[in-house]
Amino acid sequence: MDGETIVKCVPDVGFLHTGVEKQSEFRIFHQVFTLINRLDYLSGPQEEMGYSLAVEQLLGVEVPKRAQYLRVLLCELSRIASHLVWLGTGALEVNMSSVFMYCFDTREKILDIFEQLAGARFFPRYWRIGGLAWDVNEDWLQQVKNFLKIFPDRWKEYHDLVTENPIWLKRSKGIAKLTLQDCLDYSLTGPIIRGCGEPYDLRRVFPYSSYQDFEFDIPTQKEGDAYARYLVRMEEMRQSWRIASQALERLPEGQVKTEDTKITPGALPRPWGKNASVMVPDRRITAAPLREGIKIPDGASYHAIESSRGELGFYVVSDGSNKPYRVGLRTPSFMAIQALPKVIEGGLLADAVVAIASFDPVLGDVDR
After folding, report:
1. Under CATH, what is the fold of the domain 20-367?
2. Per-residue pLDDT reduced to its tens digit, 246-281
3. Neighbours of 86 (CB within 10 A)
4. Is 346 left (phi over 0), alpha (psi -120 to 50) or beta?
5. E-strand spans in the chain?
6. Hey, what's the torsion of the CAs at 297, 317, 322, 293, to 10 degrees?
7. From CA 304, how far away is CA 119, in angstroms rounded?
8. Of 9, 11, 67, 260, which cross-links 256 as Cys (Cβ 3.0–4.6 Å)?
9. Taken in order 95, 96, 98, 104, is the CA torsion positive or negative?
10. What is the pTM assigned to this prediction?
11. CA 285 to CA 295: how far, in whole Å?
12. In 3-state terms, what secondary structure has residue 208?
């Protein structure tokens, strides 16, 4: 520091290191879901999506259309929930506490949806290789409809509170500026590169899980500052609402997992209702297949998705056993952290807080 000016900034990572990539080598393929959705812990369903697609690519499995649409629906709800945390905590950084409470109130409704579906709020672990754990019921679909009905008005409240707020404008406009070339140099993706004018989004560039079936826009801004990233994420929430509404309206009939029982053993109905059992009592159907897992052919696979923070890639290597030989991740938050000195050095200490918040890193995503 030189007074209030930051002269040098060195990111120091590793304090949340969990060794998930190494731990995955000692779990059967299905058990890895429990580990990976704790990396970007604000977007668990998106982590599950990336990993399952990488393994399914190795297997050459075609996921049923109904499961693909439900996956998209859950990932877009997760994106909205994640961006609500970003907006609420980002506003809190500049002492706008009311926005924080507004955002978390809406996010709770999404977590209620996850809890009703799979029994957990942060980490649903609803994905399975080849599809999903079980089908949804009408009560759950109605719960999603109710949320999608109220969200546009909630979004307008955030917009009215923040977008033209003079405090927000002074604290974010012109702060933490990046150029498009900076993004390319540091491999930055997601809202950061879109805030520099590049409409790069894997849902559109390399569609997966039927994203090509949905109509949505890729929001961009050219200024490359903290305010531009704010505008991009705000519009992304509206586009996620748009995609989720289409997925719900067009939800196909059919199965939610592949019919190959060697890949998805123990096909169980969702135990809807209080005190319902989560497994059938016949251990030949549930315990043994789930313990032994499935064997994946030799080979390697890389699959990337568009997470809330950018390009999230899973590199999975199989040696023909029921456990991954290697699992490697390309996480967007790690890329973002390395670029922080670029926007922090030479600025004020107070602006460093805004810069970090505008990048929206998750440290589990960084350290893994």
Report:
1. Cytochrome-c3 Hydrogenase; chain B (1.10.645)
2. 999 999 999 888 877 677 654 455 555 544 433 334
3. 24
4. left
5. 127-128, 131-132, 299-307, 310-318, 324-330
6. -100
7. 27
8. 67
9. negative
10. 0.92
11. 17
12. coil
